[in-house]
Design brief:
The chain has about 150 residues and is mainly alpha-helical. The chain has a two-stranded antiparallel ribbon. The longest helix is centred in the C-terminal third of the chain and has 22 residues. It is globular. The model has no long low-confidence stretch (mean pLDDT about 90).
Length: about 150
């Protein structure tokens, strides 16, 4: 039954630049721009950096898992992994032991590159988070998680 639903989605304002989705995208674009600039100085892209971070936390992730976690397609994820492997930052077996998954692992050079860039990337996030009152951070993180979950259902 749709009779109880409003005819249009509710809006706080007619100004699209004040909508939640627009402001989320603006914040994401600003974060991405700041990260791009910093990572470029270290010879990395955002997907490459994210892949290194994830492999540090979860060694042995597959291309499919990494692609999902870094918000890229499997094809793009494979390009990222190939670039990291050619740069000597990760290793993957030449063939899959089971199925098609080829688990990736950081090399010593990969761990060193990640460590070299983490401080700068974490400072960007700290700069972003410092713009809101500290007592609001937990609620913001919870709300962002709820919003993502609501759209993934």
């Amino acid at each position: 039954m749709t009779e109880n639903l409003p005819a249009e989605p509710p809006r706080l304002t007619k100004d699209v630049t004040r909508h939640v989705g627009y402001l989320l995208k603006r914040a994401q674009a600003a974060l991405r721009g700041a990260m791009d600039k910093t990572l470029r100085e270290h010879g990395l892209t955002v997907p490459q950096y994210a892949t290194l971070e994830l492999l540090a936390l979860h060694p042995g992730m597959s291309n499919a898992d990494l692609a999902r976690a870094t918000f890229v397609t499997r094809q793009s994820g494979n390009v990222v992994l190939q670039g990291l492997q050619e740069a000597g930052l990760i290793t993957r077996p030449a063939t899959a032991a089971h199925g098609r998954a080829r688990p990736a692992h950081l090399t010593e050079a990969g761990r060193a590159r990640l460590a070299a860039v983490q401080t700068a990337v974490y400072a960007i996030e700290q700069r972003m988070v410092a713009a809101i009152p500290p007592q609001h951070l937990t609620a913001l993180l919870t709300d962002l998680e709820r919003m993502a979950t609501a759209l993934e259902e």
